[in-house]
Design a protein that fits this description.
78% of the residues lie in helices and 0% in strands. The protein is mostly helical. The chain has one domain (2-128): Nucleotidyltransferases  domain 2 (Four Helix Bundle (Hemerythrin (Met), subunit A), Up-down Bundle). Helix 2 packs parallel to helix 5 (105-128) and helix 4 (79-97) crosses helix 5 (105-128).
Protein backbone atom coordinates (compact mmCIF):
# COMPACT_ATOMS: atom_id res chain seq x y z
CA UNK A 1 0.00 0.00 0.00
CA UNK A 2 2.86 2.37 0.77
CA UNK A 3 4.12 2.27 -2.84
CA UNK A 4 0.65 3.06 -4.16
CA UNK A 5 0.25 5.87 -1.63
CA UNK A 6 3.60 7.23 -2.71
CA UNK A 7 2.37 7.38 -6.31
CA UNK A 8 -0.69 9.39 -5.25
CA UNK A 9 1.56 11.70 -3.23
CA UNK A 10 3.85 12.19 -6.23
CA UNK A 11 0.92 13.22 -8.41
CA UNK A 12 -0.50 15.58 -5.78
CA UNK A 13 2.96 16.98 -5.12
CA UNK A 14 3.32 17.71 -8.84
CA UNK A 15 -0.14 19.31 -8.85
CA UNK A 16 0.80 21.53 -5.91
CA UNK A 17 4.06 22.52 -7.59
CA UNK A 18 2.26 23.44 -10.81
CA UNK A 19 -0.21 25.56 -8.83
CA UNK A 20 2.67 27.39 -7.18
CA UNK A 21 4.32 28.02 -10.55
CA UNK A 22 0.97 29.17 -11.98
CA UNK A 23 0.66 31.71 -9.17
CA UNK A 24 4.24 32.88 -9.68
CA UNK A 25 3.65 33.26 -13.42
CA UNK A 26 0.49 35.21 -12.71
CA UNK A 27 2.29 37.54 -10.30
CA UNK A 28 4.92 38.14 -12.99
CA UNK A 29 2.24 38.97 -15.59
CA UNK A 30 2.84 35.77 -17.58
CA UNK A 31 -0.87 35.04 -17.92
CA UNK A 32 -0.67 32.41 -20.67
CA UNK A 33 1.98 30.51 -18.75
CA UNK A 34 -0.12 30.76 -15.60
CA UNK A 35 -3.01 29.06 -17.44
CA UNK A 36 -0.69 26.38 -18.76
CA UNK A 37 0.64 25.52 -15.30
CA UNK A 38 -2.86 25.72 -13.78
CA UNK A 39 -4.02 23.14 -16.30
CA UNK A 40 -1.14 20.81 -15.49
CA UNK A 41 -2.00 21.08 -11.80
CA UNK A 42 -5.47 19.79 -12.64
CA UNK A 43 -4.08 17.16 -15.01
CA UNK A 44 -1.79 15.71 -12.32
CA UNK A 45 -4.56 15.76 -9.73
CA UNK A 46 -6.96 13.93 -12.07
CA UNK A 47 -4.18 11.49 -12.92
CA UNK A 48 -3.97 10.63 -9.20
CA UNK A 49 -7.72 9.99 -9.17
CA UNK A 50 -7.57 7.80 -12.24
CA UNK A 51 -4.75 5.84 -10.68
CA UNK A 52 -7.21 4.79 -7.95
CA UNK A 53 -9.00 2.90 -10.75
CA UNK A 54 -5.70 1.61 -12.21
CA UNK A 55 -6.13 3.92 -15.20
CA UNK A 56 -3.43 5.96 -16.91
CA UNK A 57 -3.60 7.88 -20.17
CA UNK A 58 -1.16 9.85 -22.26
CA UNK A 59 -3.77 11.87 -24.18
CA UNK A 60 -5.22 14.86 -22.40
CA UNK A 61 -8.65 14.30 -23.96
CA UNK A 62 -8.62 10.72 -22.65
CA UNK A 63 -7.92 11.95 -19.12
CA UNK A 64 -10.90 14.30 -19.30
CA UNK A 65 -13.15 11.57 -20.74
CA UNK A 66 -12.09 9.08 -18.07
CA UNK A 67 -12.61 11.65 -15.30
CA UNK A 68 -16.14 12.21 -16.55
CA UNK A 69 -16.86 8.50 -16.93
CA UNK A 70 -15.41 7.25 -13.66
CA UNK A 71 -15.97 10.17 -11.31
CA UNK A 72 -18.62 12.56 -12.65
CA UNK A 73 -21.15 10.12 -14.09
CA UNK A 74 -20.81 7.89 -11.02
CA UNK A 75 -21.67 10.80 -8.73
CA UNK A 76 -18.37 10.71 -6.84
CA UNK A 77 -17.78 14.31 -7.95
CA UNK A 78 -20.25 17.06 -8.69
CA UNK A 79 -20.57 17.81 -12.43
CA UNK A 80 -19.25 21.32 -11.77
CA UNK A 81 -15.77 19.82 -11.35
CA UNK A 82 -15.92 18.36 -14.83
CA UNK A 83 -16.86 21.76 -16.19
CA UNK A 84 -14.04 23.43 -14.30
CA UNK A 85 -11.51 20.89 -15.58
CA UNK A 86 -12.76 21.41 -19.13
CA UNK A 87 -12.58 25.21 -18.79
CA UNK A 88 -9.03 25.11 -17.43
CA UNK A 89 -8.08 22.69 -20.21
CA UNK A 90 -9.56 25.03 -22.84
CA UNK A 91 -7.64 27.99 -21.42
CA UNK A 92 -4.42 26.02 -21.68
CA UNK A 93 -5.28 25.00 -25.23
CA UNK A 94 -5.87 28.57 -26.36
CA UNK A 95 -2.93 30.01 -24.43
CA UNK A 96 -0.54 27.41 -25.84
CA UNK A 97 -1.73 27.15 -29.42
CA UNK A 98 -3.63 30.31 -30.34
CA UNK A 99 -1.00 33.01 -30.18
CA UNK A 100 -3.46 35.59 -31.46
CA UNK A 101 -5.70 35.12 -28.44
CA UNK A 102 -4.36 36.97 -25.45
CA UNK A 103 -5.17 35.78 -21.96
CA UNK A 104 -5.80 38.82 -19.81
CA UNK A 105 -5.26 39.24 -16.09
CA UNK A 106 -8.88 38.59 -15.12
CA UNK A 107 -9.08 35.40 -17.20
CA UNK A 108 -5.80 34.11 -15.81
CA UNK A 109 -6.82 34.84 -12.24
CA UNK A 110 -10.12 33.03 -12.74
CA UNK A 111 -8.34 29.98 -14.22
CA UNK A 112 -5.71 29.82 -11.47
CA UNK A 113 -8.31 30.16 -8.72
CA UNK A 114 -10.54 27.45 -10.20
CA UNK A 115 -7.54 25.14 -10.68
CA UNK A 116 -6.61 25.65 -7.03
CA UNK A 117 -10.14 24.76 -5.91
CA UNK A 118 -10.09 21.74 -8.20
CA UNK A 119 -6.82 20.38 -6.83
CA UNK A 120 -8.03 20.99 -3.27
CA UNK A 121 -11.21 19.02 -3.97
CA UNK A 122 -9.31 16.05 -5.34
CA UNK A 123 -6.84 16.18 -2.48
CA UNK A 124 -9.76 16.13 -0.01
CA UNK A 125 -11.21 13.08 -1.81
CA UNK A 126 -7.87 11.24 -1.59
CA UNK A 127 -7.36 12.22 2.08
CA UNK A 128 -10.86 11.07 3.01
CA UNK A 129 -9.97 7.62 1.66
CA UNK A 130 -6.57 7.59 3.37
CA UNK A 131 -4.82 7.42 0.01
CA UNK A 132 -2.42 10.28 0.76
Amino acid sequence: MADVQQNYQIYIGAAREMLQVAKENFMNFHFSSACNRAYYACFYAVSALLLTKNLTFSKHSAVLAAFRQHFIKTGEFDPKWGKIYEMVMASRQSSDYDLFTQIDEDQALFVVERASEFVNEIEKWLLKRNLI
